Amino acid sequence: MTTAEVLAPTEPPAADPARSRGGLNPLARYLLLRLALLVPMIWLLVTLVFVMMRVIGDPIQAALGGRLPADQIAQRKADAGLDRPILTQYWEYISGLVRGDFGVTLTDNRKVSDILVVNGAATLELAFWSLIVAFAVGIPLGRLAARYRDRLPDVALRLFSILVYAAPVFFVGLLLKLAFTPLGWPSSGRASTSTELTLQQVDPQTHIMIVDAFLWGEPSLIWDVLQHAMLPAIALGLLTGGVFIRLVRVNLLQTLRMDYVTAARARGVSERRVLRKHAFRNALVPVVTVMGMQIAMLLAGAILTETTFEWKGLGYALAEYLIKRDFLAVQGIVTVIALVVGVMSFLIDVIVAFVDPRVRF
Fold it and tell me: HSE on the CB side for 67, CA within 13 Å?
């Protein structure tokens, strides 16, 4: 190499097009965009809840009218801030949400935040067990249906998925109670009375029965909690499991038509290995995407499931306060459910962005 070649100016490295647009790679840019969209989405959800609760009328009069004299009704309105201008109420509602203050119930003077902690833990536990049932039912049966396409197992599984999805969750719950209660399975509550009293002594108490049972360390308590969770989890999990069966089947069949799958078969790879190693993982990407939608379905189904099995979660509390016409409590619970759905939608988008790079562009 000559001296001139050494001293010759070198070309600058090519700029990364991904970083030249704002200095961020596509994944970071996508996540920031989704995070920016999350804020207005949550604002619209909580605003919609506020408007709906005001459209139905005076919540104090609906809950306590006829049970208290007019002067006490007026005092309750003043205490709740419902005698102020609507924009003032809206500002106090939004600022309270930011501080974590969801108000106080009208009928039992209980903080809505306490209901969200105690009953929300129960709903979270039920949703967790239901998702386990949904995955245990939906993914293996969806693979089986795709493997035996248009044959008897496939036809039977498709009919089963339609049946469990279309059947009302409370009806499935009642059938399970009729079938298993005579066999000694518990069909109401989150645990037996003695177990609940024992777990109230756990320090710290998480209000999630299975966690508290493990913290106590008594196998009989753990088994009692699991027994009580089985029937409601099956009733609610089958609803989502029916969706997963059809979703896994359809996406697996589409993936099996891809060129790389055909190439694997041409190399002599067995059909079972093609299904497990080459097609199954890619077919799960849409399942992860739909999971966010199923969270909303689980929360909606939890209202009927918790009422059927007397599972004292958010759905059970919501049904009770609706009967009492305690619309301030209803407002707080519905707001939290809306927030959970919005945040879960964001988290699912984040997971999909890591699994499938195509969503970043």
Answer: 11
